[in-house]
Amino acid sequence: MRPLQISAETALRLSKTLNVPIEQIMHMPQHILVQKMMELEKSDNKDK
Prior knowledge:
- By secondary structure, this protein is mainly α.
- It is 71% helix and 0% strand.
- The chain is globular.
- The termini are far apart.
- The relative contact order is 0.16.
């Protein structure tokens, strides 16, 4: 599996937001990463 095609800044921000090491972010399957991002967005919308 090849690493995700995301910028370093995006990987750092996701790493901090998800509380996951950056290495794990870079090698996470894309569909799982998208799912986690959707969960974060839902929780952000509930907070507003």
